[in-house]
Amino acid sequence: MSRASRPVPRRRPVRGVRTRRAESSQLGDHRNRLVVGRALLVLTLVLAGLKLVQVQALDASELTKMAEKQRLTSKTIPARRGAIIDREGRPLAISMEVKSLAARPQALAKEWNKPEIVEQYGIDAEGYTAKIAKFMHEELGDSYPEEELLKKLRRDVPFVYLADNVPPDKARKITKRFPAINAEDRELRQYPAGDVAGNILGFANWRMNSQKTEGLFGLENYEDTVLAGKQGRRIVETAEGNNELVIPDTERDVLPATPGSSLELTIDSDVQFKVQQLLSDHVRRAKARSGNAVVLDAHTGEVYALANDKTLDPSKPLNRLDSNDPRLRNPAVTDPFEPGSVNKIITAAAAIEDGLVKPDTVVEVPGSIQVSDRTIRDAWSHGTEQMTFTGVLARSSNVGTIKTAQQVGEERFVQLLQRFGIGQLTKVGLPGESAGQVPPRSQWSGSTFGNLPIGQGLSMTVLQMAGMYQAIANDGVRVPPRILRAVTGPDGKRQPEPRPEGVRVVSPDTARTVRGMLRAVVQDSPDPLQRGTSPKAALEGYQIAGKTGTALQVDPRCRCYVNDKQWITFAGILPADNPRFVVGLMIDRPEPGNPVGVNAGPLFREIASYLVQRYQIPTSPDAAPVQQLTLR
Amino acid sequence: MTAPARVPDPAPPSRGGGGGQRTAERTERRGNATRRSTAAERAYARRAQFRRRWLRVVPHRGVDGVPRAPFVLLVMGLLAVGLLASLWLSTAAGANSYKLEEIQTGVRDLGERAEQLRREVAQLESPSEIARRAKERGMVPAPDPAHIVVRPDGSIEVVGTPKPAAPPPPPPAPQPPPADRPPAGPPAEQPGAAQPPQEQPGQPAQPPAEGPQQEPPPAQDGPQQPPGDG
Question: Which stretches does UniProt call biased (Pro residues) (chain B) (predicted)?
């Protein structure tokens, strides 16, 4: 509707008449107002623009800094670290949520010495800190003496930590009563089993700079990414100049933390404890330098126990540990040794597999044998003896073994050495694993093949050594040992670790035959010619197959093998007729002449005796047959 | 157009054929305005307004003439109900949030407690702790057990010879008070006497009966074989 048609014009004169007197001046006022208003607006806009340029461009960095100081701080929410449990679900390493309590003594003193505060509460900083210290001591117990807390609270520093590893409920009680005390999230790693499997677990602790628990060594370090989980984030408003001082109820943008996965090991902590105990006891009595032991499942290759004579207790403080301390490694997987006669199993398996000998084949064993420039003798001096091949193994004749090995041939020997896993990593799942050393074929000297069959001149870990016997126990299929059984994710789903592919080493028949021959090692007889090397490894009611070993160590001074430094080894299968476990033992440098140190068979027996009780292994239906070792 | 109150507003029909004539008249009158006094001018205007006093647009009524009141009441009622409902809901939500907070606190406290208990259990059930406590009570690891094997024909065979356990080597240093009983069977007493019940007279009392003539744990072995078999 156009305005023209309205009778408005008629009214205008009316108003116009009424206001005519002031018309001109008022019209000018209006115009002036507009001009002035516009000018003001433009000016304001220009000013705002200028300020904008100043804020956004000129002072930007400085202002950002100031803002950061003042307001929002992004805080991480620690992700709960996954636990490590044994095969029965018993915890070996667990994490606990704890708090660290801190205070800002300078700010506290300043605040509580203000006259109005003193007047209002009738207490000054001195009285207030005394109250805090008293209450904290009451809550936290004797590990936090009142005087010490008080001293910390009154120090002239901006920030001080008062207490660590405080249970959250106590921390809440304290911070609620005294808002001047600040609680920070921490995580405490605990090892409830003490030193049981300490060599496997390693150690993890809280790190201030990353604000989370991190593994230092052992599995804790090796599987850190799996265990750690993912930290969450939250934004909080904090006081100016102190990002630790959170203004209450300003939390936002919470991204929840994802807890880490839990590891289930193949270790049985009972067996581990017992083996650790028996081994360290044996090493102590033999006055040896060290010792390793491993218990494997005969069929799956799962590691039930992996022990060293000295074990770190991760639940105790580690401050005084030297970085070379063997307890920081796991010598059972990191330190290879020369296995000695235990290695004769390779020659035996090869000779049986290739049909060169049978257990009762008679081998003529002279007192010594010449290999290239070296003369190799047996451990006891004798003239030419007629031994069965079983006897060669059971009485551990070096000469007989080398004679048979020469029949087997170097190529075949090397092939089997490899199939038995010697010189290769087992990939057991532990850090720092050594593959041992096998001289490459190209570097063999004339006498090398006089050494390798009797277990000198090559090295392996106790795990690899037990692996060889696991192959014989498992009807010729070697399953590489594993220590990780399953991983349980944060969703609670248990993911079993894939079982490694088995390696066929020898035929099932060969394995059974060799196992049968090895029973003679623990055979006892009044006649020394029919006695195995370790009757004391025998366990009544069970057929035991095993092999003793003694290897000479090299003296670095003369670079020659010396007689007073030895590795004493033993590998055994329990029970031989229906294998359940394989045990590998190594004792390093027992005191020369010490009767305990001569043979590790008795230690095997102790471990075997425990295992049959622990796992209620049925007795063997028949006793092992008496085998003829030497012909008269 | 829906504002009938404004009287002077001409209704659309007034824009009739005579419009042109009136406009002409108006212009003429305005031309004469200078001659008229202000008062007269005002009077004219007032008269024009007065003349149109009764002219207004008749509002259109619904054909059926349904009264509006019930509808309005219904809407008001709905609004009131909605308002009350939202009020009640927000009050309930507020009350529940307190409850929720309380329960969450409870859950947290109980969770912490459960965790602490779990940790204690883990510590107490660890093999080293069990071994320590067993030792404290004077218990020793069992030696090799004998096995009773049941043959398929029902006959039984004892494999191995059952042997009593050796008493723990030295009695743990300080023997606390429980030595109030006269030593009934001197060798039978294990340290930490608080634990085992009274000796049952009827039973052969296997383990602790013959302490002293134990053979030591079976590990010691003579040099039955020359060192260095390898």
Answer: 164-189, 204-230
Q: What DSSP state is assigned to residue B227? A: S
E strands present in A89-202: 91-103, 160-166, 182-190
Q: Range of A531's domain?
A: 269-310+332-484+499-631
A341, A396, A397, A459: which one is catalytic? A341
Burial B26-53 (b: 16+ CB within 10 A, else e): eeeeeeeeeeeeeeebeeebeeeeeebe
Mutation site for B-interface testing, chosen from A1, A2, A5, A316 by largest number of B Cβ within 10 Å? A5
Closest to A390 (Cα-Cα) out of A355, A411, A354, A362: A362
Query: Has residue A375 been placed in a domain?
Result: yes
Residues A298, A382 share a domain: yes
Choose from B36, B117, B126 for mutation: most chain A CBs within 10 A. Answer: B126
Per the domain annotation, does A205 fall within a domain? yes
**Chain A residues touching B45 at Cβ < 8 A:** 10-11, 14
What CATH number does the domain containing A239 carry? 3.90.1310.10
Q: Are residues A306 and A221 in the same domain?
A: no
Q: Is the ipTM of this complex over 0.85?
A: no
A620 a catalytic residue: no
Nearest to A337 by CA among A391, A294, A278: A294
| Residue position matching structure tokens 């880490």 | A260
- CB–CB of B128 and A196 under 8 A? yes
State the nearest Cα–Cα gap between A114 and chain B, in angstroms: 36
Q: Taking CB atoms and an 8 Å limit, are A534 and B122 in contact across chains?
A: no
pLDDT 10s per residue in chain B (230 long)? 444 444 444 444 444 444 444 444 454 445 454 566 888 888 888 888 877 776 667 666 655 667 788 899 999 999 999 999 999 999 998 888 889 889 988 998 999 899 889 889 998 989 989 999 999 998 888 888 888 888 889 899 888 888 888 887 665 555 444 444 444 333 333 333 333 333 333 333 333 333 333 333 333 333 333 334 44
**A377 with A511, same domain?**
yes
Instruction: Evaluate if pTM is beyond 0.90.
Output: no
Q: What CATH code is carried by the domain that includes residue A424?
A: 3.40.710.10
